[in-house]
Write a structure and sequence with these properties.
Blueprint (H helix, E strand, L loop, with lengths): L50 H13 L28 E2 L75 H26 L20 H17 L3 H6 L4 H14 L5 E10 L9 E13 L8 E14 L6 E4 L13 E8 L2 E2 L2 E2 L12 H12 L10 E8 L10 E4 L3 E2 L2 E2 L4 H11 L5 E7 L4 E8 L5 H4 L9 H10 L14 E4 L2 E4 L12 H7 L3 H4 L8 H10 L17 E2 L6 H8 L6 E2 L1 H13 L22 H17 L12 E7 L8 E8 L4 E7 L9 H12 L1
C-alpha cells in the first residue's frame, strides 16, 4: 500500500508546474453623458436719396411694422418660472432672466479651487471673417453697430442737389416717369431690405443672427438659444451655435452620460460686456444657473440626487459679419472643466466606525492579516443594504478616472454604521488562529456548510492573506472533483477495481507515483482515493475533456466570481481551464498542472459534499449568495462521503486523530521553484456543521503539516 507519500507525482522535466500567484481583483497580495434659432434680419446701410424717391421710401418704411425683439434672456414664451436651483415636478426648468446684476453664490459647488473663468481670447478670435454679399454690413471699416439698418435707425436723407431748370412738358413728363420708376425701384429695394431680409428664411448653418437693439441684447439672445437647445436635449442645435460644433456636441453628450442625467434645467442671467469686448468686436458674458438630477449609476437602485450650480458662457460677434457664436470652452458646462477632465457622479459608501465579528468583537483584536485587510476594505466600501445609505458626490476627474483634488461637491452625505458585523465566529476564529500558529506560511478557512457563512479566516504568513488570496494548485484535494465527474459519468464506483501503476505516459510525458509505489489491478477505487495514488486518476483523462471545469462550476459553484460581501468586489477563488487536454488534463485529474485554488474555494468543496448542495460563501449578513449550483446527485454524494471517510479510517489521514464523524482528503502539490511541496487538507464534520481547508506553503506532505492543523482546529472548535 502507498501512503500520503504517494500523493505526489514526478513527471519528466518537461512537465510545467504552477507557482503561487494571486487572482485579479482580490483583496490582498499573493504569496511570492427643441428650440428654434431666431432668424434675424441683416444689417444693411441704405443709400442716400433725394426727391420723390426718398419721400416714397420714407413713407414705405414708416408703414412697415417694427422688427420683433424678444425680451432679453428668454427662450420660451411660456412656462412656469421655478426658483433658481430647483427642479419642478414635471422635470423642466424654463429659462428665465436673472435680475441684473448677476452674481453667483459665493459657495457654489465646483467654484473652488478656481472661480468661474472669465478669460476670453483676444478680439478677433473665433471663426475667420468671410465677407458675404448675402449679409451686407455697410462700408468697409464701418462696424455693424454704426450702420443705419442694424437696430432700426433711419438713414439721413441726402441734401437736394442745386440747379434745375425748365423744359417742355415732354421733358417734365419724362422726368416724372423716370422719377416714378426710380421711386418704385427704391420701394422694392426697401421692401427687400426691411421686409424680406436676407437670412430671415435661411438662417446661417452655424451661429445665429440675433435681432437685439444692443450688443447686450444680442448676446443674451444667442445665450438663450444655446441654453434652450441644451436643456431640451437638442445637442446638435446647441453645438451649431458654438464655434466648435463637433467638440461641443461630443462634450455635451459626455456630460449627460457621465452624470446619468434626468431632469435638467437652465436659467439664463443678464449679459454684460466681456473682457476684450469692443464696438467692432462685441463680446457678452452671460451667466446661468444649472439644476439637474444626477446619479451614481444607471440602474434603478443607483443613488440619485439634485445638483444646482452656476456657470457662464461668452457670446461674440464674428468680425466682419452679423453672425454671433457661443465661444466653446469645456468650462461652459461647469466651472474649472478642461479638455483633459470631465464630471462624474460618484456613489460614496456609508462610513463604518468599527468592523466586528458575529459576537460584536473588533476584528482588529485577532491581529490577523486577512481580517485586518477585510476590515479596511469594508470601511472603504461598506454595503448600502444594511441600514446605512450611500451618499453621492459630483467631482471632476482626469481622463484616467482619478478625482481632481478639492473638486468634490457633496450632494448627499453617506450614512454611518457605528459597527458593521461580519460572519466571523469568535470561537472558530480563535481555534483557527491557534491551529495555524503550528507552522509558518499556514492559512485556514472554516465555513458553516448549512449556510455558507465564513466562520474563520486565519493566517500565519506575515502580511499575506493566503486564506483568500492563495493562487496555487490544490493537489490531491482536487480528486474530490475528479471523482465527482467520474461518478456522474458512471465510469466508476467506490468498489470498482482500478489499478494504480507506478508510471503512466500521456502524449510523451510520463508521470511517476511518489517513490514509484503502485496499487495492483482490482484495487477498489475507494482505496486508490484513500491512499491518494495519482496514476489511478491520470488514466481517466480521455473521459475528462471539459468535465473537470464543468463539474467544478455546475456542482461546486467554482470557476466563476463570488462576491463574498467585501464591498462590491467579486473575485474568482478557483480556476480549471475548460480546454485542457492530453498530459495537462492528466495532471489536473490529480490536482496539479494549470489548476489554481485558494483555501476558501477548497473549504467550500468540503462544505458542498457535507450537505450535498453548494451554498456560496459569504462574509457579511447583507451579502447576496448570487452564485448557485446544482445539488450533487444523491448517489454521487454518498460515494464521495464514503471515499473521504476511507481517508480517515485507512488512508493518508488515518493517524491524525480525527473522530468518527470526520471526513477528509489530504493533498500535496509539487510547485516548481519551491524547496518543498505545498501541504493541503480539507475536512468536514456534519455533527458540528463545520467544513475547513488548510494550506501550508512550501512545507511537505499534506498529512504531515496541514493535517495536524485541521485536527487541532476541529478538536478546539468541539
Amino acid at each position: 500500500m502507498t501512503s500520503e507519500t504517494s500523493d505526489t507525482s514526478s513527471p519528466d522535466p518537461s512537465d510545467a508546474r504552477e507557482q503561487p500567484g494571486a487572482p485579479a481583483g482580490q483583496p490582498a497580495a499573493p504569496p511570492t453623458a427643441p428650440t428654434r434659432v431666431i432668424a434675424a434680419g441683416t444689417e444693411t446701410a441704405r443709400p442716400s436719396e433725394t426727391g420723390p424717391a426718398a419721400a416714397a421710401a420714407t413713407r414705405a418704411e414708416a408703414a412697415l411694422p417694427a422688427d420683433p425683439v424678444p425680451p432679453a434672456g428668454t427662450v420660451s414664451p411660456a412656462g412656469t418660472v421655478s426658483p433658481a436651483g430647483t427642479v419642478p415636478p414635471d422635470g423642466t426648468v424654463p429659462v428665465r432672466a436673472i435680475p441684473a446684476p448677476y452674481a453667483a453664490p459665493a459657495a457654489d459647488p465646483l467654484l473652488t479651487p478656481g472661480a468661474v473663468s472669465d478669460a476670453f481670447p483676444a478680439a478677433g478670435a473665433g471663426p475667420a471673417a468671410t465677407p458675404s454679399a448675402a449679409y451686407p454690413v455697410g462700408r468697409p471699416g464701418e462696424t455693424v453697430y454704426h450702420t443705419s439698418g442694424v437696430y432700426g435707425a433711419r438713414a439721413k436723407p441726402s441734401s437736394p442737389q442745386p440747379g434745375g431748370g425748365g423744359g417742355g412738358s415732354r421733358r417734365t413728363m419724362i422726368t416724372a416717369i423716370v422719377a416714378g420708376a426710380l421711386a418704385v425701384v427704391v420701394l422694392v429695394v426697401l421692401l427687400v431690405v426691411l421686409v424680406f431680409k436676407p437670412g430671415s428664411s435661411a438662417p446661417p448653418a452655424f451661429g445665429m443672427i440675433p435681432t437685439g437693439s444692443s450688443a447686450q441684447q444680442d448676446g443674451e439672445q444667442v445665450a438663450a438659444a444655446f441654453l434652450a437647445a441644451w436643456q431640451g436635449g437638442d445637442l446638435a442645435t446647441a453645438a451649431k451655435l458654438t464655434d466648435q460644433p463637433a467638440t461641443a456636441q461630443a462634450a455635451l453628450a459626455t456630460y449627460a452620460k457621465d452624470l446619468n442625467l434626468r431632469k435638467f434645467g437652465l436659467t439664463a442671467g443678464s449679459g454684460a460686456a466681456a473682457a476684450g469686448s469692443t464696438a467692432a468686436a462685441p463680446r457678452q458674458a452671460v451667466g446661468f444657473a444649472v439644476s439637474a438630477s444626477v446619479a451614481g449609476g444607471s440602474g434603478a437602485a443607483a443613488v440619485r440626487a439634485a445638483w444646482a450650480y452656476h456657470s457662464s458662457l461668452t457670446a461674440y460677434q464674428k468680425p466682419g459679419s452679423s453672425v454671433w457664436f457661443v465661444r466653446w470652452q469645456p468650462d461652459v458646462m461647469a466651472p474649472n472643466l478642461t479638455a483633459a477632465t470631465h464630471l462624474a457622479a460618484v456613489t460614496v459608501p456609508p462610513t463604518v466606525s468599527m468592523v466586528t465579528d458575529a459576537n460584536g468583537g473588533n476584528l482588529a483584536q485577532y491581529g490577523d492579516a486577512g481580517l485586518s485587510n477585510i476590515a479596511g476594505l469594508l470601511k472603504a466600501a461598506a454595503p448600502a443594504n444594511g441600514g446605512a445609505k450611500a451618499g453621492l458626490d459630483v467631482e471632476i476627474q482626469t481622463t484616467a478616472g482619478k478625482p481632481v483634488a478639492n473638486s468634490q461637491a457633496v450632494l448627499t452625505a453617506p450614512g454611518n454604521y457605528p459597527t458593521l458585523s461580519t460572519t466571523i465566529d469568535a470561537k472558530a476564529e480563535s481555534a483557527a488562529r491557534a491551529a495555524v500558529a503550528m507552522h509558518k506560511q499556514s492559512s485556514m478557512v472554516a465555513i458553516q456548510p448549512s449556510t455558507g457563512k465564513i466562520l474563520a479566516i486565519a493566517n500565519n504568513a506575515g502580511f499575506n492573506d493566503f486564506a483568500l488570496t492563495a493562487d496555487v494548485a490544490p493537489g490531491s484535494t482536487m480528486k474530490t472533483i475528479t471523482s465527482t465527474a467520474l461518478f456522474n459519468a458512471g465510469l466508476v464506483s467506490p468498489a470498482t477495481g482500478v489499478a494504480c501503476p507506478s508510471a503512466y505516459t500521456v502524449t510523451g510525458i510520463t508521470y511517476h507515483n511518489d517513490q514509484n509505489e503502485t496499487l495492483p489491478a482490482g484495487t477498489p477505487f475507494s482505496t486508490d482515493f484513500a491512499q491518494s495514488c495519482n496514476n489511478a486518476f491520470t488514466q481517466w483523462w480521455p473521459h475528462l475533456y471539459g468535465k473537470l471545469a464543468s463539474t467544478a462550476k455546475d456542482y461546486y459553484g467554482l470557476n466563476q466570481k463570488w462576491n463574498i460581501g467585501i464591498g462590491g468586489a467579486s473575485a474568482s477563488y478557483f480556476h480549471a481551464p475548460a480546454t485542457a487536454s492530453g498530459s495537462e488534463l492528466a495532471q489536473e485529474a490529480f490536482g496539479e498542472g494549470s489548476l489554481i485554488a485558494s483555501p476558501l474555494a477548497m473549504a467550500s468543496v468540503a462544505a458542498t459534499i457535507d450537505t450535498g448542495q453548494f451554498r456560496q460563501p459569504v462574509l457579511t449578513l447583507t451579502a447576496k449568495q448570487s452564485v448557485t449550483a446544482k445539488p450533487l446527485p444523491r448517489q454521487t454524494d454518498a460515494d464521495l462521503k464514503q471515499l473521504m471517510r476511507a481517508v480517515v479510517t485507512q488512508g493518508t489521514g488515518a493517524g491524525l486523530g480525527f473522530g468518527p464523524t470526520v471526513y477528509a482528503k489530504t493533498g500535496t502539490a509539487d510547485i516548481q521553484g519551491q524547496d518543498q511541496p505545498n501541504s493541503w487538507l480539507i475536512a468536514f464534520d456534519p455533527t458540528k456543521d463545520i467544513a475547513v481547508a488548510c494550506l501550508v506553503v512550501n512545507a511537505g506532505y499534506g498529512a504531515q503539516f496541514a493535517g495536524p492543523e485541521v485536527a487541532a482546529f476541529l478538536h478546539a472548535f468541539g
